[in-house]
Records
---
Amino acid sequence: MTDLKNFFKQHFGSWPVHRVQAPGRLELLGNHTDYNRGLVLSLAVDRNLEMASAPRKDGKIELVSSAFPEKERFACDRIEKNDSAAWAGYVKGVLLQLRQRRVNFTGFNAAIRSTVPLGAGMSSSAALEVATALTIRRLFPFTLSPGGIATPPKRNSRGELPPLSKPEKLALAGVCRNAESEFVGVNCGLLDQISCLFGKASHLIEIDCQHLTVEHLPLPPGVGVIVCDSGVKHELADGAYNALRRECESAARALGAASLRAVDAARLQANKTRLTEREYQCAYHVIGENHRVVCAGRALWDGDLAQLGEYLFESHASSRDFFKNSCPELDLLVDLARAQPGCLGARLSGGGFGGATINLVRESEAERFSQEIATKYEEQTGRKLSPSRCRLVDGAG
Ligand code: GLA
């Protein structure tokens, strides 16, 4: 916090009044299932975005981020895109969504620092969206309700607000998701935002995107989570992500289903001829992923780590061969991981087309795993790899 406070002071000349933090996330299983009303297993990780803020009286909003050289300054009543500070779009998108729900805010300053890597599939964008929504709540308290806003929460004698209820967290996740689809242009699901808000130390998060329920499952002791950033940047707004979503939705329509969640493997096979080849491949992947999330939950309860890991390898193969959202570097990382002793499972995590793999590795082998995979990846691609251990942490607040 001291660093963040100083960073704020350096830019704005006074101390911040509030500070919020929002973690990055990894997807363990359930790839591209969220917008198909499916199931996901994810985790919030110890890579953090922090936002310090203070109100101002002139109706202006000024943002500064340690990750980008450009400051962004705009008026509360003129929130528009600015290509030369594209990163601020995630903040502006959330502000517009809140305003649509009649949340009243005036000017403020905010300084952002983050250890969530950019473009590595750990959802730095959701962390920024969620931190923005929480900052506005601190500065201008509000309660979201299905119809807009309800009576705002009251601060206690220490000036603190009550913690967010589960429905409020879900509503905030929805606001942040809509900001991403309507302002930034990525028509994503709720995985990133829910994971960021619902993280729990040492636990996985199981999300049902049809019934909007969130459960926590303990990660068995002795298992390390290691993330390997391929160094290939993914750019979800480039249309590839939205195109996959369109294929999934048209597959569901052709099958006469409200979503792919409603379709099982037998129905898909029986109706294969109604689908284009691409629709079939996408549906096959998503239906398989939903199934793997259910089975992985059982494996976790049974402590069957080998089986759990196998589902990760299967998921990656399905991404590579059917959904086609992998890339040669991610495939290589998974192959190299599989050859390491102590590696239980590995797969691409998140949207795909680059970014990172998630690896479940026996703790006793974690060190050796990281060294070996880094050496081999560099030998074969010429790219540096810095495998890094992730702890499962609490959600944003
Ligand atoms: C990105 C999106 C999520 C989800 C994943 C793939 O992270 O933001 O909503 O669709 O890809 O599972």
Note: The chain has two domains: 2-215, 219-390.
---
Amino acid sequence: MAITIKSKSEIEKMREAGRLLALVHEEMARHVRPGISTMELNRIGEDMIRSFGCIPSFLNYEGYPASICISVNDRVVHGIPSKHEILKEGDIVSLDAGLIYQGYHSDAARTWAVGEISPEARKLVDVTQQSFFEGIKLAKAGNHLYDISAAIEEYVTRYGFTCVRDLVGHGIGTSMHEDPQIPNFRQHRRGVKLQAGMTLAIEPMVNMGGWEVRILDDDWTVVTEDGSLSSHYENTILITDGEPEILSLPQ
Ligand code: MF3
Ligand code: CO
């Protein structure tokens, strides 16, 4: 499928989808603390999405059984919330959420510390978030898609961490996953030329150890092969002729 360029009215809807998703993340973040179950965080996120009249886009996506992907410690992405999984001091937890507003998707992920975490874990979380911002410095019309990929990996590698290679960012719009795929590591080609009106979900997944991952027997949860910690940070952005607009951060 070709990469879509969004019209002004489509961009308005993507903006609103992103603004609402940022509020969902703020609300979930307020509840991240030792003792809460991942199921409870899922409920808080899903309730807020529905309170806006939006649809939780992850629920039933290819059979995924929840609205928020919650991935603790060595879980990379797509963790399934459970009432038996209780957050504890020192954990890192990634919350990945998506919603549909008037037919338009937004997708964003944050990784939070649960209470006090180790300095190494703090560094991993901070570097992951910053790698997103390093990547999108290159995200403007006229540059090439894989400029973003290379910038993310270059930054992450500087700190001795690795970028997951099996999962990628993506175009987004009337579907959660549109073309193009957006790897978080250097490519041998330059990729398509970026154009104003493209909407992209940029989402570095960064491991403390090796980049290799595997999937648990639940067929969803992606974990690091070596058991090392993993962090995730994602926003839906709009390509413009100047700085990109980050749609899923608080406006
Ligand atoms: N946020 C994920 C992504 O960026 C999608 C979640 S998978 C789902 O691709 F099954 F939970 F929807
Ligand atoms: Co995504």
Note: The first strand starts at residue 55 and ends at 56.
